[in-house]
Each structure stands twice: as structure tokens, then as C-alpha cells.
Amino acid sequence: MNTIFALSGVVIKELCRRKDFYVLFILTAVLTALMGFANFFHDDKIVRYLKEICLLLIWVSALVIAIGTTARQIPAERENRTIFPLLAKPVSRAQVVAGKFMGCWLACGLALIVFYIFFGVISGSREHYWPVLEWFQAFWLQWVMLAVVVAMVLLGSVVFAAPSSNGTICFIVVLGILLLGRYLNQIALREPEPLKTVVYGLYFMIPHLEWYDIRDFVIYDRNLIDWTSCGLATVYGAVYSAFLLFATWLVFRRKALNV
Amino acid sequence: MTRFSPFWILLLLLAGCFSLATLLQPRVDAWDPQAGSGGVLKLILGDSRRLIADQFMEQADVSFHSGYYPSIFDERKAPKGTAHMTSKEGSAEEEDHEQKMSFLGPPRDFIERFGRHFLITEHTHLENGNQREILPWLQISANLDPHRIDTYTVAAFWLRNSLGKVDEAEKFLREGLRNNPGSYELWYELGVLYSENRHDFVKARNAWELSLRYWQKDEPAKKEPDLIGFEKIVVHLANAEERFGNLEKAVEYYKMALKTSPNPDVVRQQIKELEQKIGSQQSTNLTTAHQP
To answer: Quick check: A43 and B163 CB within 8 A?
Structure first.
């Protein structure tokens, strides 16, 4: 376990050294602040549009950070040939996969904490209302979703040739699931056989990342989602991440490391 | 020979660009006088801004329903028009809207059933002043498409009714009228604002008269003229004339409303009452005139 945490520490340090997070955070802050200064009918109590824009930017930024950071982990180690001394430590390939996953996921979590603190400050100072539990739930579910995304990108990084193609493909797949995943069953029912079975099968197979998007609950000040459902969604995310990580290890353990 | 730093050359070129721009800009404007009229948004987005404006209008509706809204994949589509956004509780429009918005139905499988825990599944409308939350989307929509009338009428309705911002509502309606001077809906809404919020019935009547004139100018030629809108205008005009004591004119307007009203019996009754009033007024006048 210490090896895994040591590997993940390196990934977190890398995120701190790179400019991606800072650029995305400043961009989110500047855009939100600019929208915050907008005057709509001299009413300073209007706040939901600001929450909506801020949360959208947080979601986009978190996805970019997760996919961007994860996609280059294993390819960079292979390209720089640092994977050889790493495996000679001795560190097993399974530990490399687990360490990279843990590092990327924790790094995403740290970035998310900063983003949500910013969101909380902006939203709370405008609304004079601090629903911390709702924010925590939104943060937690988004972080669980990012675990699945990180595991998916890690699998992509041992399957696809370059980090750029892996990043693009994963971004499209994740966006596709977020936008269409919920409706695949409805689409399937309107299609003739055998397309109906194929689409319905796909609906059951894909990780339903859209469940973890509870921005509307935060924006429209709805009640908390029951914690049992949150727990089940966490288990679902954990199982999917484990499945994807296991698949990554299966591909990676036999993979030639020379570029 | 002294060598110039490349930065000086860069500065010289920049100055040249600036000078040429100041010379050329007035000429470019003269090439197409229409180009600058829509502002920067029109220049950048062209006609596609109307599509984006529609999206923002829909976003206002989503916000009005606190996130409970059908997607393009749902069997029942998103409500058309904006009448439900300004309809009164218990009205026929509201009941019809309530039916249309029950789009979710029972879950088809266990994934959908579980997924509903993370979805807003109750149909509610914003209330207690929270209607203000739709205003930013309406403002952006109006900026993108200044010729979309319902953006102005919906925003003005909430501004004056729920938020008590009558000045802002009037300003926004007048902005709409600057962009659409011949819109009978905007003149009608301005009349309602004068009547209900400012209690200035003269200005209200003037606005409704203009509204009627523009309705008669544009609507009859249409395939489906807005008869409900027409009825609203003439009934308001009839009430205004009755208030000012012009009973004959009020009867005239009621007779116009009779052709389109969904409740002609009520209108007939009002005409009858007014005609009785006119009759009694005339007999009183005759008696006064014959008195020595």
C-alpha cells in the first residue's frame, strides 16, 4: 500500500507543478466573477444563473483535469523510459496501475475541493444561505464519477497509441454518456430489432455517469438526495472503477514497454 | 549608422495600423449601413443568434420549473410558447400545462428507477419572488434576438407582478417597442402596466388603442390570427371606455369582442347592462331638457 501511496504522491506533485489546474481555476473564477458583475434589472438577489454557470465551469474543468492528467501518466513513463527503473524498484505493474489511479483520483479530489470552496464562497455570499451538506453531496458524487473517468482513461492509455487520441476519445465517450446515457432505453424502444437489443444492451453496460450530476439540486435549492442512494451510487462507481482498473492491469501486464 | 531596435519598428507598424483603421472605419461603415444596426452580437453570430436566443428562452423555462423539464428524447415535448409562464393558478392554461408536464411516466427498468433519485421529478413553478431567477436568461435572450416579443412580455409580467419593479418593467417593454414598434402584444402589455400598476387609465387606453390598431393591421391577414389577444385588447378597451363614461364606445368594443369571445353570453349580458344604462341616461337627459 505504501508503494501505491508513494506513486500517487508523485502524480499529485505533478498536478501542482503543471499549469493546467491554475489556468482552469483562474478561468472559472474570472468568468464567474464577470457574470457576477452583470446587472439584471437592478436586482442583486438573482443568483441561480451564477450558480449554474459556475457549476458548469467546474464540471468542464474537472473533466479536463481528470482526462488530461490521467491520459499522459503511463505513456509519459514509457516515453521517458522511467517505467524501467520504476518497475525495478521492485514495483509490480498492478501497483503502477493502482498508484497512478490513486494519484490521479486524489489530485482530482484536491482540485475539486478548491473549486467547491470557491463555489461555496460565491454562492453563499450572494444567497446568504450555506447548504454545506448539499454542496458536500454534489462534491462527493462528482468525485466518485471522476474515479470511473480516471479508470476509463487509464485503460485507454494502455490501449490507444497516443495520449491525445486517448484524451479525445475518452472526452467524447464521457460527454456522450452524460448527455445521452439516461435516454438510451427510450431511444432503444423506438428502434426496430436487432438495433433495439443492441442499444438496450449498451444502456445496461455503460457506467451511468449522469447519475452523479446533481447540479440541479444545488442550483434550485432542492432537498438532499437520500444517503442510501448516494451510498449505492458510490458502490456502483467503485465497482465500475475496479472493473476498468482490472481490465487496465490485464492489458498492461503483457504490454511491451519499449516505445 | 545607428541601428533601430526591432521594438521601435513594431511600434511604428502598430501606429500605422491604428492610423489606417481610423481612416478606413468610417468608409467601411458607409459600405453597408445595415451592418452595424444589430450591434456586436449580430456582427459575430449573424442569424444564428436567434437559435441561441431560443435556447436561453428555454433555459428561462427550465429555471421557472426548477430543473423539471422534458428533454428532446421524452415522449411529451417541452411546452410550446410562454403562456404557462404568465398564466394564473387554476386557469385553463395552467391545467393544460399541468397535463403536458407529466412527461416522466413510470420507470421502464431498474436503472431508470434508481436514476430518478438523482433527478428532479416534481413539477413546480417558482414562487415567492423567486421568479426573478428567470430574468437573466430572458435578458440575454432579448439581447440576442430583440424581435422575440414574448421575452419582453414575460419579463415585464414578472417584474411588475411579483417583484414590484414597475419602472424596470416599463423600461424593458419600451426597449421591446423600440425594436418592434408595431407589436400589438407589447402595446397591450404596456397598457396593462399603466392600468394595473400606475393607475393611469388615459395612458392605458391610448396604449390599447394603438395595440388594437396594430392588431387590425397585421393579424387578419395571418392564417391563424391571435383571436385571444384581440379579445383581451377590446375587453380592456371596453372597460376603459366604461370607466371614462363613454358607454356607446364601450358597447362598440364589447360587440367586437362578441365575435371572438369563448363566453359570448357573458359579453352579451354586459352589452345589455350597458345599453340599459345608456337608455336610463338618455331618459334622464330628456327629462332634464323638458323641465321648465
So the answer is: yes
